[in-house]
From TrEMBL:
Keyword line: Disulfide bond, Glycoprotein, Immunoglobulin domain, Membrane, Signal, Transmembrane, Transmembrane helix
UniProt entry tagged with the keyword Glycoprotein: yes
Cell compartments where the protein resides: Membrane
Gene: Scn4b
Organism (species): Anseranas semipalmata (Magpie goose)
Polar residues bias: start-end ranges: 181-191
Stated name of the protein: SCN4B protein
Chief location category: membrane
GO molecular function: sodium channel regulator activity; transmembrane transporter binding
Transmembrane region(s): 140-161
Topological category with respect to the lipid bilayer: Single-pass type I membrane protein
Highest taxon above the source species: Eukaryota
Database matches in PANTHER family: MYELIN P0 RELATED, SODIUM CHANNEL SUBUNIT BETA-4
Position of the signal peptide: 1-18
Length: 206
């Protein structure tokens, strides 16, 4: 039934190796191979296995319940378990020690949950082994960032100068207006101009 199918999907077991499925390691170093799983209804006697290139088992563990840590069933001597399943995340990550060029390839984290009708799921991560890590030349990036930063700085400076100039012009214009108002409002009595009180005086008698 469609309803039961949707219900089953909602409780499906999920396995993840993180945001990226590629890892680069330096020859002779140790490398972390991350893996976590989620299930909505919990788990009992969960079984998880790591495979190299789909066929070679390099780690096999079992987890009784959420309150217990994994129990080792079998492993490659150069593989160490570094996860934990009693905390917030069901982490079943491993570390591959003393990496060699022959270790490059596909690593699959496989999980089976009997409580979920023996649902099983897996996720894959690809390991690349290099002789030395390439140093990234950031000169071009730094030049571009410097130019962009300089242009933004000049733009801000231009806007500040523009505001200062506009402020000065506005203040100057306001000052002129005040002068015009005060001069036009003067009483011209003393000057004897047209319309002044001087015209209203009677002419002197001869």
């Amino acid at each position: 039934l469609p309803g039961l199918h949707i219900f089953a999907i909602a409780f499906a077991l999920e396995v993840s190796v993180g945001k990226t499925n590629t890892v680069m390691a330096l020859n002779g170093s140790n490398v972390l191979l991350p893996c976590t799983f989620t299930t909505c209804i919990g788990f009992e006697d969960l079984d998880f296995t790591w495979y190299f290139n789909s066929t070679e088992m390099i780690y096999h563990g079992k987890i009784k319940s959420k309150t217990s840590e994994p129990v080792l069933v079998g492993r490659n001597p150069r593989v160490e378990f570094v996860g934990s399943t009693t905390g917030k995340d069901n982490n079943i990550s491993i570390v591959l020690t003393d990496v060699e060029f022959s270790d490059a390839g596909k690593y699959t984290c496989h999980v089976r949950n009997p409580k979920e009708k023996k649902a099983q799921h897996n996720a894959t991560i690809f390991l690349t082994v290099v002789h030395r890590m390439e140093e990234t030349d950031n000169t071009v990036t730094l030049i571009i960032v410097g130019i962009v930063g300089g242009l933004i700085g000049l733009l801000i400076l231009f806007m500040l100068i523009k505001r200062v100039v506009l402020f000065i012009i506005k203040k100057t214009q306001d000052g002129k207006k005040e002068c015009l108002v005060s001069s036009s409002g003067n009483d011209n009595t003393e000057n004897g101009l047209a319309g002044s009180k001087a015209e209203q005086k009677a002419p002197p008698k001869a």
